[in-house]
Amino acid sequence: MRTASKILIGGVIFYLGKHVYSLNRAKNKIATDVGGRLHKLGMEGVEVALKFNIKNPTSASIKMTAPLIKLSYNGKILATSSITRLEIPEDARSASGKIKIKPESETGFITTRMLIPYLSLLGAGANLLQRLKATLEGSVDTPVLLQVATTSHVQSAIGTFPYDDLVTIEV
Fold first, then answer.
1. Span 81-132, pLDDT tens digits
2. CATH number at residue 58
3. pLDDT tens-digit readout, 41-57
4. 36: nearest Cα among 74, 66, 75, 79
5. Which distant-in-sequence residues (6+ apart) come within 8 Å of 97 by Cβ?
6. Which of 18, 69, 143, 144 is most buried per CB count within 10 Å?
7. Rg of the chain over CA atoms, in angstroms?
8. Calpha distance 154→159 (Å, rounded)
9. Domain count, the chain
């Protein structure tokens, strides 16, 4: 009886250790492809359309909270996302609204639109608004570079791990 319980306890410890190791690797290896474009110029400001594809190259199944997205220009935050405007594909959405990524697969494109108010654009630099307008008209030589910071949490039965990513995109 003692031998069987030791083998059982050893098996459980091995399984939990393997799971924690796999989740730690997943946290370090998750890849996020981010793309964006100017969608339109409206009365309140400039609307930017963003799309994400989250890739899981590990053998662990992952659940993530919907990311908080911050859009910035030269270190100044222009806009923050609204989780209600985040569109997650059906295959990647769990019943609780979290993002689920199967082992060695990807989510498909998660999309959102963010409104950058005119006051934020003026605060970031007077020429930024003119450059964005010129980009929408197609008459700009150099694209505008925006930084997209995402903050999320990877969740498992064992614990929750933070996941942060910073990407620079051209619009």
1. 877 778 888 888 888 888 998 888 888 888 999 998 888 887 777 678 778 8
2. 2.60.40.10
3. 888 888 999 998 888 87
4. 79
5. 66, 88
6. 69
7. 21
8. 8
9. 1
